[in-house]
Structures are given as C-alpha cells and as structure tokens.
Design brief:
There is one protein chain. With about 270 residues, the chain is of the alpha/beta class. The chain has a single domain, classed as TIM Barrel, CATH 3.20.20. It is about 40% helix and about 15% strand. The chain is built from 11 helices and 8 strands. It has an 8-stranded parallel β-sheet with strand order 7-6-5-4-3-2-1-8. Helix 2 links the parallel strand 1 and strand 2. The longest helix is centred in the first third of the chain and has 14 residues. The protein is globular. The relative contact order is 0.13. The model has no long low-confidence stretch (mean pLDDT about 95). Bound molecules: NADP nicotinamide-adenine-dinucleotide phosphate. NADP nicotinamide-adenine-dinucleotide phosphate binds next to strand 8 and helix 10. This is Aldo/keto reductase. It holds the Pfam family Aldo_ket_red. GO terms for molecular function: methylglyoxal reductase (NADPH) (acetol producing) activity.
C-alpha cells in the first residue's frame, strides 16, 4: 500500500443512499473541500450516477480513489467478474481502486467469494481488494485463505459501539479497519460530551467523533449532503485528541448502539 493510498483512503466520501441532483451536488462539494476518495456499491444502485458525479468533479483519474463493492448475489463464477465489469462501465473507469466484498455470503463460507475477488484483481479489474462486514473469525480465515493483501474490512464503527475485538483482529491479521456509520447516522450528537470536548480544540462535535475514529487507527467513511458538514468532516487532520479525551469518549462504547443489527439487515453475520 502506498503512502498516497493510505493518506487518501483515510477520508472517503460515502454515497449511500444518495441519487440524482443531491448526490451530484454532494460529490462536487466533497471534491471542492478536498475529498479524493469516493465510496459506492452495486447494492446502492447509484454507480452510474456516481460515474457522472466523478466526471463532473473534473478530477484527473490518478487524483481519485474509487471504491465499489460486489453484491453477494454476484458471488458466483458466472456472475462475479461480469458484475464488476458492469460496475466499471457504470463508473466510467477501467479499474476500481478498491473492490470490496460487500457482505459475507449467507452460510458464511467465505473462501469461494475471496477467490473470485482475487481473480478480479489478477484480471486487472481492481488495484486493491478488501472486505466489508467481516467478523473476527472471518478476518482470520480470510488472512489465511488469500495471498493478496486485503486493504480493509469496512464495518460499522463509531464511539457508541465497542469494536475493540475487530481492532485487535486488524493488528493480528494486517487487515486494516475502515468505518461506516461514522457519526452513527446522527445518534452521536445526542451526547453533549463531543461538543464539550470540541470547545477545547475549536472543533465541532462531528469533528471530535471522526478524530476519535482516526486515532483508533481506522479510516473514515462519511456521508453528508450539507456543505458545512462535508467541509467539517474533511477538516479533521489539524488537531489531536489528548489521551484523556480519548478515554472519556471510549467510555461511551459501552452504550452498545448498533445501527446495522441483524433485525435491520437479515443477511448480516452474527456480530462479535
Ligand atoms: N459497507 C457497508 O455495509 C456500509 C453500510 C452503510 C454505509 N456504508 C457507507 O458508509 C457511508 C457513511 O455511512 P452512513 O451514511 O450510513 O452513516 P453516517 O455517515 O454515520 O451518517 C450520515 C448521516 O449523518 C449526517 N451527518 C454527517 N456528518 C455530519 C456532521 N458533521 N454533523 C451532523 N450530521 C452529520 C448526515 O446528514 P446531513 O446530510 O444532514 O449532513 C447523514 O444523514 C455511506 O454513505 C456508505 O458509502 C457502508
């Protein structure tokens, strides 16, 4: 992994559940404040619109880092590679910078889909590959099955949920973690602690949340449609939370607030 990749991937702009004008405006606003990494998925059914949005940013190909994710319905020999080729046509790219398996397959035998993912990379359809929504057990299995480096396991990660075991698995397996639902879809803002801590650094509550995630060694994926929030979410590199503030925020992890529960997403694995 290059330093350029690591630095750019630290702050990705998410595109779920955006479509149409709202999506395009958000992508333009994101590019204007400095975002260069964009995140989509076959499941979001917006890859073609993201392709239009990427072109509209005017960024050169080597200035952007685009992630897409393969839908589990396409985890078969017949469907996997054609589905990635379609994603690339929709995104107007000839290669994905990052290609992820969006969810573990139901039944949880991860080996066949990982092999298909590695094939996509070998065929030149992806520069980097990774996974999403993997448990600790799956991270360990994946690291033993696949020769290629996995650049991320993208999971729900925010201060209201204790994902320490995944961080430990990341250190053990070498598969870094990246976040989604980074501000817990707004739930974090019910806790005054973030604003209170932010005052000492001249930063907003959202920036404190995202900085906490970065200082856990996790890359951030955020989505917003509001220019002020988009700009705030990107502007998180010029301060460092003290270890005391990190520990104060850590205390909220016991809240155990999970958005992507198995009730909401029946195909989710049994979470750690
Ligand atoms: N791999 C997966 O299975 C998976 C699952 C879910 C999501 N994702 C990816 O992760 C991205 C982000 O996750 P998410 O959108 O679900 O959750 P999120 O980033 O926690 O929440 C987005 C919501 O929070 C608000 N928000 C964002 N920044 C804010 C700020 N600084 N202050 C106040 N409100 C703020 C946004 O509203 P406003 O528009 O009003 O700012 C938006 O409604 C998605 O877009 C998608 O690309 C991946």
């Amino acid at each position: 992994m290059s330093i350029y990749f690591e630095k750019t991937y630290q702050r990705s702009f998410g595109t779920f559940p955006l479509h149409g004008e709202v999506l395009h405006k958000a992508m333009l606003d994101a590019a204007a404040v400095g975002y260069r990494a964009f995140d989509t998925a076959q499941m979001y059914e917006n890859e073609a619109e993201v392709g239009v949005g990427l072109a509209a940013t005017g960024l050169k190909r080597d200035e952007m880092l685009v992630t897409t994710k393969v839908h589990p319905d396409n985890f078969t020999e017949a469907l996997f590679l054609p589905s990635v080729e379609k994603s690339l046509r929709d995104l107007r790219l000839d290669v994905a910078d990052v290609l992820l398996l969006h969810w573990p397959p139901i039944g949880e035998d991860i080996a066949p889909s990982l092999k298909l993912l590695a094939q996509a990379k070998k065929r030149g359809l992806a520069r980097h590959i990774g996974v999403s929504n993997y448990t600790v057990k799956m991270m360990r299995e994946a690291a033993s099955i696949i020769d290629e480096p996995l650049v991320t396991n993208q999971v729900e990660f925010h201060p209201l949920l204790d994902q320490t075991v995944l961080l430990e698995a990341a250190a053990e397996t070498g598969i870094p973690i990246s976040s989604y639902c980074s501000v817990a879809r707004g739930e974090v803002f019910k806790y005054p602690l973030f604003e209170e801590i932010g005052k000492a650094y001249g930063k907003s509550a959202g920036q404190v949340v995202l900085r906490w995630i970065l200082q856990k060694g996790v890359s951030i994926n955020t989505m917003s449609t509001k220019p002020g929030n988009i700009s705030d979410n990107f502007d998180v590199m010029d301060f460092t939370l003290s270890s005391i503030d990190m520990v104060r925020i850590d205390a909220l992890m016991k809240t155990g607030y999970r958005i992507v529960t198995r009730e909401l997403v029946p195909w989710a694995p049994k979470w750690d």
